[in-house]
Amino acid sequence: MSRLFEEHEKQYITYVLENERLLTLRIKDIISVEFYYGEIIITTMSAVHKFRTNVKQEKARLTAMHFLKTHQGYYVNPDHVQKICSDCIYCAKDIRIPVSTRQRKKLLEEFHQYFAKPQLPPVF
Fold it and tell me: Which of 44, 57, 79, 99 has minimal Cβ neighbours within 10 Å of its Cβ?
């Protein structure tokens, strides 16, 4: 049973909203996340969700889920990145995410690391 719960945690993220409703989202459906004055704005393939949250805790959670920080308050799911430009990232559904000058180099390194294939040992 605990293994089943662990698998669920790897694929889904759950939020408790102000009216004590639960919002459960598939991680791979999340395109981007924006933080704005204590609120979180989550853009998914099917909707945009906006609610209040603990920003520091959510930023740590997103980093652990391999979301990439593009700018102060902006995170993107690398699986939805279609094009990286010098000042923005284009994602699925024509979503444009800003990229700061400070974050650009680190963002590119993390992006390449995320998609890097493990090297196979040479065959003799």
Answer: 57
